[in-house]
Design goal:
- The chain is α+β, with helices and mostly antiparallel strands.
- Helix content is 56%, strand content 13%.
- The strands form three sheets. A five-stranded antiparallel beta sheet has the order 1-3-5-4-2, sandwiched between helices.
- It has three domains: 2-157, BirA Bifunctional Protein, domain 2 (2-Layer Sandwich); 180-256, no CATH class; 268-403.
- It has helices at residues 11-19, 40-51, 75-88, 129-144, 150-153, 165-174, 178-190, 195-204, 229-233, 237-244, 253-263, 266-322, 326-335, 337-403; strands at 2-8, 26-33, 60-66, 96-103, 106-114, 116-117, 122-123, 207-211, 217-221, 226-228.
- The chain is built from 14 helices and ten strands.
Length: 441
Amino acid sequence: MILKAKERGDAGQLAHYLLDQRDNDHVELHEVRGFVSADLIDAFGEAHAIAQGTRCDNYMFSMSCNPPEGENVSIESFEKAIDQVEEKLGLQGQPRAVVFHEKDGRRHAHAVWSRIDADRMRSINMNHYKVKLRDVSRELFIEHGWNMPRGLEDQRLRDPLSFSRAEWQQAKRIGVDPKELKSVFKKAWESSDNRAAFAQALKERGFVLAQGDRRAFVAVDYRGEVYGIARKAGMKAKDVATKLGDPTDLQSVQTVKAEIAGRMTGKIKEFIEQAERDAKRRSAYIDFRKAEVIGRHQDERRQMTEAQEKRWQAETLARSERLPKGMSGIWHRLTGRYAKVKAQNETEALEGLRRDRSEKDDLVFRQIEERQKLQQDIKTQREAGQEELLQLRADVAEYMTLDNQGPDHDHSRKPNHDPDGDDDGPRPRPPRSRRRRGFEP
């Protein structure tokens, strides 16, 4: 289980984020412990109020627990993992909240503690918490028999395609997955051994090498989006400079943008607009299918929760009626029968809690399996869309190259040359169709 955490303040924003349904299929407030209020927003407001009596700004400790993809983890296993972290970091007894999120067929948990010791009005020291979390994470992978990620085994083997929030937002603007985009740059980098080869590799993928701010190497696409080479290729800036040399003899970003805009013919723009309309239609259909499944799953969970609550109330009433009251109750206490009935009630209550959790886990696991199948279909369709958008970039680069060759260029070698000999220049061809089975507009 991958554990990520940080010290932070702004409890109100954190509470709203944890309860936000927009980016998740399901959100469940599982536990609020040690606060006066059972409402998450009010509880975190308590933590903020108490922290005002100290000098601590980052008075919350927020952690996410992410199981490996494809693994079903029970509520009890999540709780045990959170308890292990709590003990390892010295947060025993501190107010905490646990929230479950589900997204794209995967379930994970968020645990948040108050770092303020209310008795001493001091913050709890969180020295070396990243190292301690890594140790607990390794123990959990071993305990559950999961395949340990290479990055967890050795920090030097972490995913080179990791991306920042800014990169994610940029990728969303252009409709391409950020990891796919990084993969494009990485492949171009690995397939070239000098600047000319790298520039050509980028050009074939629809990017133009340019000089950015502070003499950095960047790439510009037909939309005018700018990409830092070092970050996208997963390389250090000094390694990029060693391979590509001095960027000052390259065109500036502004010049490249102007040239691209000047070569964007009406026909090319028409192809781009059509591809983007196709991508939006595919996205709308995916959103419809996902919303239908999520809505049905939410109804099933609501019905189960209502049925379990009704059964729990009936069982609680039946257990309470076993305990004699009045003089009879005093006599049962004296004879020891009261203690036996109370112990029986506690045992049955615990068994009932475990039964309800097991039923809930079974329902969640079944829904996750269905959601994962849908997500695989969604992934296939999105990959088809990604391939079309990436191919579009390469085609746009080719069109602009053809249109920029001028009337003196020998077009007889071009595959779109008119065999009748009366062509008046190269004609752009529309992007290749890559529609896959399973896509419904």
